[in-house]
Each structure stands twice: as C-alpha cells, then as structure tokens.
C-alpha cells in the first residue's frame, strides 16, 4: 500500500508538463496528422476538437480524481472506491498494468526506429556512412539494439522517482519539444507546396464527414490523452490535495491538443512539400500512401531533397519525435512500477529495472516475430484493452463511487465547484454519455 513517504509532484506546472508529456506521444505527433490526412483534412480536425471537449476532457477529470482520491497505484485506488468488490478492483487494476506494459513493448520498438533515423544524419556527417545506412535499414539486430537503448532511457527516468525523475525530465523535455515544433513549422512554411497542405488542414471538406470519421476522431481524442491504461490515474495520485483538478485537467488537454494541432501544421504542409519535390504521397484514387509508415518513408525522402539543410531538419524532427515518445513511455512504465513498488513493497529502483527488463523481453519476442506479433500486440492493447478499461473507469465514477465522495475530493482544490456548471453536468455525463461514447469507439470497427 501507499506509504506516507510516497512521492509527489513538487509543483502544479511540474504535474502539467508530466501529464501533458504522457499524453503527447506518437499518437499526437504521428497519428493525428496521418488520421487528418486520411479523413478529409479540416473536417477531421473539427471533429477531433469537438471530441476532445465532449469525451477526452471529462474522462481525464475522472481518472485524475480516482487517482488523487486513492493516493496510490490503480489497484489500491480502485480498491478504496470499489469497497464491496475488491476482487474486481484488483482484476481491472492489474489489466491496466498489463495494458500499459503491452503498449510500451511495441511502442519502444517504434521509438527505437526514431532514434535510428535521428542519429543517421549525424553518423553520415562524421563519415560513418555504413553505420548510418544500418540505422535506417530494417533488420532484427538494428531493431533490438535501438529498442534496448530506448527502454534504457525510459527505465533511467522512472527509477529516479516522481520529482527527481518524471517531473524533472518532463519539465526539461516538453519546452524543448515546443521549441523544435516552432522551428520546424517556421522552416517548412518557407517551402514550395506548404500552402497546399495548410489549405487541406484548415479548410473543411464536409463531404468527408460520416460515422466512421466521427468514431475515428473520438478514438484519436481518447487515445491521445493516454486514457484507459491507468497512466493518468497514477499521475493523479501524485497530485497535492489543494490542486484544482478540473482546471489542471483542462490545461493538460489544451497543451495536448496544441501539440496535435502543431503536428498537423508541420506534417501536412511537409507532405505537400514532399509532393512538390517529386515524392509520391497519394495513390491514384487520392488515398494517403502507407500512412503508418509516413514518418519513415515520406519525410526522410523529403529531407533528402533539401540538400545539407535537410540533414539538420531531419535530425531536429526525429529528436522531436523521440522526446514525444519518451515522455509517453515514462508514463506507461510508471503504471506497473507504481503497482509493484506499492503493492509488493519493492524499492522503486528495483521495480523499474525488473519491469523494464520484463517489458524489454516482450519487445525482443515481438522484434524476432515482427510480422505475426507487432500488429497483434498493438491491436489487443490499444483497440481492445484501452477502450474497455475506459468504460470500466466511467462505470466506477458514474455507478460505483458515491457522488458525495467525488464532490468532497474535487472540492479540496476547488471549494466553489458545487455552484458551477461543471458539477451540474459532469457526474451524469460521465455516468451515461462517456461509457456509450467509449463503447462506440470499441465496437464500431468490429461492425
């Protein structure tokens, strides 16, 4: 169980940077722009913004509230609320721990590739052309080395604890990420073809709006905030009691959305710059080619057409991607580490190393059996476990936890909330609307 010496975020801004860092990952910087490009540009953007307000923000408040009330890992926090059925609390808390671990196992492989593509121009610059080519070429040995490197970075940060590890590195990496975004967007807008991409991004084509687009936007909003897997619950448990949860959740959502919007401002114009430079990005019927591999195909091709400056831009871009991946992976590892540390009373450093190694072994198994396991693990963890856990958290808040207890918890950082519009809407909204919305994200692709 949680101890009195349990770590906490030392400041509200530290928490906001860490929580935003958890949310800001490849789903924002890579997933959102490719979803936008594949779903009619600005029409998807409008729906995404709507879903951030209607689904993601209310669920973020729910997870943070559960975590801060429990002041512990997901298993213990759920047990504190689910008093009449402790077994279910343990089961779903454990599933959250497993889901976060599975996501990290394939996420670390992708992040390793990003390190490779970022380091390749530097290696070429110092004359190591063979090594640079190896870093960019798919292969089991290269995948293993880069995955180990990325997992090592993640374990290093998490074992340092909340204030000295997660908060310290998040407050360093997130501002750097913002600066890199600003520099890259500023540069790409000077290139021929960028305005065409900007028009696609900002001028809606409403003919693309259908049920599939709405559900995709809903899923993107839900996943981009790291909801469902217990990461926000754990981070909420490190919040001081005098923090205004609703306002802080709003600030995290705004930063997360801002990064996604910035990614769109970078990636979509970059795609059309690449098209202008002779790189094929759409097929004959106008569909985006290999949206899943966009980062590893279209953009490196674009950087190659830019000459020497392209190497610098490429390095900056992949550095940005690695930072986004690392701030998310820290949160994913923190979920099982908090459980092991507090439930089994294992030292944080030891728990981080044990779980880091266990997840790395799973990553190695995926690398060796990539074609059969990578998509399978990604699908099970993100398309099945994550949304179904989101439904469970909504049920816990809406149907299991007494409303007066929720109000008492939220009021600690916001004494006047009972009189405001938020408290008049949020409890019944999370009770009825959110479970149906998240279930729709889960069920629609199966239909």
Describe the structure using short key phrases.
447 residues; mainly alpha; Amino acid/polyamine transporter I; 78% helix; globular; transport
How would you portray this structure in words?
The structure is a single chain. By secondary structure, the chain is mostly helical. It has a single domain, classed as Amino acid/polyamine transporter I (Up-down Bundle), CATH 1.20.1740.10. It is built from 18 helices and no strands. Helix 1 crosses helix 8 and helix 5 packs antiparallel against helix 14. The chain starts with 11 loop residues before the first helix and ends with a helix.
Gist?
It is a multi-pass membrane protein. This protein is mainly alpha-helical. It has helices at 12-23, 26-38, 42-70, 74-81, 86-125, 129-136, 140-159, 162-188, 194-202, 211-224, 231-237, 245-276, 298-305, 308-343, 348-368, 370-400, 403-411, 421-443.
Count of alpha/pi helices: 18
Order of helices and strands: HHHHHHHHHHHHHHHHHH
- The protein's oligomeric status is single chain
Largest sheet features: none
CATH class: Mainly Alpha
* Shape field: globular
| CA distance, first residue to last residue | 42 Å
**What integer value in Å does the Rg equal?**
21 Å
Instruction: Give the mean pLDDT.
Output: 91
Content-based structural category: mainly alpha
CATH topology: Amino acid/polyamine transporter I
In the CATH hierarchy, the architecture is Up-down Bundle
In percent terms, what proportion of residues is strand?
A: under 5%
Structurally, how many domains make up the residues?
A: 1
**Helical amount:** over 70%
Question: CATH superfamily membership, which one?
Answer: Amino acid/polyamine transporter I
Poorly predicted runs:
none
